[in-house]
Amino acid sequence: MAKASEIKVGNILRYNGELVIVTEVLHRTPGKGGAFYLDKFRNIKTGRIVEARLATDEQVEICRVETNDYQYLYEEGEFMVIMDNTTYDQFNIPKSLFGPSAKFLKEGMNVIVSFESEEPIMAQAPNSVELEITYAEPAVKGDTSSGAMKYATTENGIEIKVPLFVNQGDKVKVDTRTGEYVERVK
């Protein structure tokens, strides 16, 4: 347990039985009455923002969160199987923790996963991934206006928009957060 005055942005707390990450800490000292903290927390599971008014000596529980790099092995139903690179232990992580970037994961990739007392609470894919184009629509001659795009299918079956010069067999870099084409990889 810690006092509210010891909370820092980025701490993970157990607040009202839920895991929250601290996004903002404001110290207020009104002219009348005692000082207090106005804090903003983001619920880790739901993403909802919660505001709290805490007295300076109010007790809060700061959670011990262990964040490490793991290797993504394969998908198994609604879970992603990852492996610790040092101990070779394997864990099942719910696919929902990765969010929309889960579809870009390739076997053997490194991912970041946070555990709080043996329970996975956060997972993050790399910001970008290199994928091979398995099918690309042919470019139409004369359709060379600036920024012209066409649809292409990647090696893991995802359809993305790419510039006209990208062809089947090319490798492209894709942003896993937005799903957008970044650049062609040589």
Automatic annotation (TrEMBL):
One of its GO terms (molecular function) is translation elongation factor activity. It is found in: Cytoplasm. GO terms for biological process: peptide biosynthetic process. The keyword Cytoplasm applies. Residues 129-184 form the Elongation factor P C-terminal domain. InterPro entries: Elong-fact-P_C (IPR015365), NA-bd_OB-fold (IPR012340), Rib_uL2_dom2 (IPR014722), Transl_elong_fac_P/YeiP (IPR020599), Transl_elong_KOW-like (IPR013185), Transl_elong_P/YeiP_cen (IPR001059), Transl_elong_P/YeiP_CS (IPR013852), Transl_elongation_fac_P (IPR011768). It comes from the Bacteria. Its main location: cytoplasm. Transmembrane segments: none annotated. Keywords: Cytoplasm, Elongation factor, Protein biosynthesis. Residues 67-121 form the Translation elongation factor P/YeiP central domain. It holds the Pfam family Elong-fact-P_C. Pathway: Protein biosynthesis; polypeptide chain elongation. Involved in peptide bond synthesis. Stimulates efficient translation and peptide-bond synthesis on native or reconstituted 70S ribosomes in vitro. Probably functions indirectly by altering the affinity of the ribosome for aminoacyl-tRNA, thus increasing their reactivity as acceptors for peptidyl transferase. Belongs to the elongation factor P family. This is Elongation factor P. It comes from Mucilaginibacter polytrichastri.
